[in-house]
Amino acid sequence: MSLPDAEKLLLDLADRMRPHVTPDTALVGLHTGGVWLAERLHGLLGLAQSPGSLDVSFYRDDYAKRGLSRDTRSSALPFEVEGGHLILVDDVLHTGRTIRAALNELFDYGRPARVELAVLIDRGGRELPVAPTYCAATLELPSGSRIKLAREADTLSLRLVQE
To answer: Which domain holds residue 47?
Structure first.
């Protein structure tokens, strides 16, 4: 299976978002791929607010079963959440459970006026009623595989990983 070019998808995602953001819109990237995307989108969209980041490890509904990942990072929101227009940014949307966890954590910081979701790829397979506001591509994957976003220097790429 051939995957689309991540850099082209990023530009397409920025184009889809541009008419709907203001300089006060804040991006919140989900570790890890979503943080990389939020950093790049921040520059492409010319937003005033520095992007934030969330690590939803403690908010996952499978935390008791999976335990804490060794790659756990701290969350950082360098802006006021209360009353803000926030866009959660993630690389791949699948079941919706990561987004549910992100919303739970986000509301611990305050009550935003609006929260939207931007993803590079929607691969379907939803287990929760979650849908992206902005999406660059929808892909159907072979069973037993997933998409991983990788970053080398400032270049993003996608690869197919067999589970």
So the answer is: 6-66+74-162
